[in-house]
Amino acid sequence: MKKARFLLLAGLAVLLAACGWQAGAVSGPAEIPMEILGELDEAARRELLDDPKYVALTFDDGPRPDTTGRLLDGLLERGAAATFFVIGQQVQGNEALLQRMEAEGHQIGNHTYSHVRLQTAEKDTVVEEIHKTEVVLQEAVGAGSYWLRPPYGMIGEQRAALVKTPMVYWSVDPQDWKLLDAGKVAAAVMGCVKPGDIVLLHDFYPSSVDAALTIVDQLQAQGYTFVTVEELFRIQGVNPEAGVLYASPSLIRPLT
Ligand code: NI
Questions:
Q1: Residue 156, CB half-sphere, CA atoms under 13 Å: how many?
Q2: What is the reported pLDDT for 127?
Q3: 177 exposed, middle or buried (CB, 10 Å; 0-12, 13-18, 19+)?
Q4: Where are the domains of the chain?
Q5: Chain-centre distance of CA 34, in angstroms?
Q6: Which terminus of the chain is less hemmed in, N or C, by CB atoms within 10 Å?
Q7: Would you please indicate which residues are annotated as catalytic (active-site) residues?
Q8: In whole angstroms, how far apart are CA 103 and each of 72, 81, 100, 107?
Q9: C-alpha 23: how far from its chain's center?
Q10: Closest listed residue to residue 150, CA positions, set 185, 184, 119
C-alpha cells in the first residue's frame, strides 16, 4: 500500500517536472460571431470552434545515424515535422541525414559545435562554437538562419547579446535522457502537453525515438498537427528576436 502511494507520488512528480516552466500559458479560442455560427451545419460549426492544435517536437544532441535515421523514417510515415538542434562536430559523416531533414520539411538548429556550457564559456568561445556550427551546416545544407538552443538551456545575458539568431528553450521537458523508457517518456509528455508547446527530446536515445513516435500517434489522434519551431512562431504571429530565449512563442525565458 505504501509502495503504491510512493509510486503514485513519484509518477506525479515526473508529470509535474515535465510540464516544467510556467505551464499554463495558453491562448484562448477565437471569437466567432453568433450570426455566422447560426448559419452553419453542426460539422462545420464544430470545425470552426475547434482551435487548430499545433505542437513542436525538438530533438537535441544528434545527428546519430541509427536513431536519427529511424526517427526521420517514422516522422515521414506520419507526415510530422520536427526541429533538430544538432551538435556541429557530429555533422561530418552525417551530411546525408541533414539533407534528408531539409528535404523532408524539418527545421535544423544550432546546438553549438562541442556542446559547451555557454553560460560559463569565454566570450570568444561562445562566438566560435556558434560560428563553427553555422559553417558546417551551411556546407551540408546551404545558407540559412540556424536558431540556437544553448546546451542545458543556459546562457547569460552578456553572452546572449552575442547571439545573432533567436534562441529556443522548451515548455515541456520529460527528461528523456534520465528516464530512458519510451512508455514513461511518452506518458510524461502526454500528461501535460497543450497547443503551442515546444517539447524537448533527444534523438540520441532509441527510447526517445520510440517515445516521439508514440507521442505523434496519440496527439495526431487528438487532432494535433506537428510543425517546426519556426512554423509555430509564424502560426502564432510572433516575430522572434535575436538573442531572446523563447520557451514557446508566447513565453520568453528570462536570462540569468
Ligand atoms: Ni544538449
A1: 10
A2: 98
A3: middle
A4: 2-22+52-252
A5: 37
A6: N
A7: 60, 202
A8: 11, 11, 5, 10
A9: 15
A10: 119
- Going by their DSSP bridges, the two strands 251-252 and 245-248 should be labelled as antiparallel
Cα of 134 from ligand 1 centre, angstroms: 17
For residue 244, report the distance from its CA to the centre of ligand 1, in Å.
18
Q: Which residue has the cell 568561445?
A: 125
pLDDT, tens digit, 9 for 90 and up, residues 113-153: 999 999 999 999 999 999 999 999 999 999 999 999 999 99
**CATH class of residue range 2-22+52-252:** alpha beta
Place of cell 506525479: 12
Alpha carbons 84 and 89: distance in angstroms, whole number: 14
For residue 165, report the phi and psi dihedrals to the nearest 5 degrees: -130, 170
Q: What is the tens place of the pLDDT at every residue in 45-94? A: 666 667 799 999 999 999 999 999 999 999 999 999 999 999 999 999 99
Whole-number Å distance between alpha carbons of 15 and 184: 10
Ramachandran region of residue 66, left (φ > 0), alpha (ψ -120 to 50) or beta?
A: alpha
Please give all residues whose CB falls under 5 A of ion ligand 1, grouped by chain where several chains appear. 60-61, 151
Q: Find the 62 Cα to ligand 1 centroid distance in Å.
A: 9
Q: What is the 3-state secondary structure (H, E, C) of 192-232?
A: CCCCCCEEEEECCCHHHHHHHHHHHHHHHHCCEEECCHHHH
Separation of CA 111 and ligand 1 centre (Å): 7
* Cβ atoms within 10 Å, residue 31: 5
How far is the CA of 1 from the CAs of 4, 6, 56, 141, in angstroms? 5, 9, 39, 56
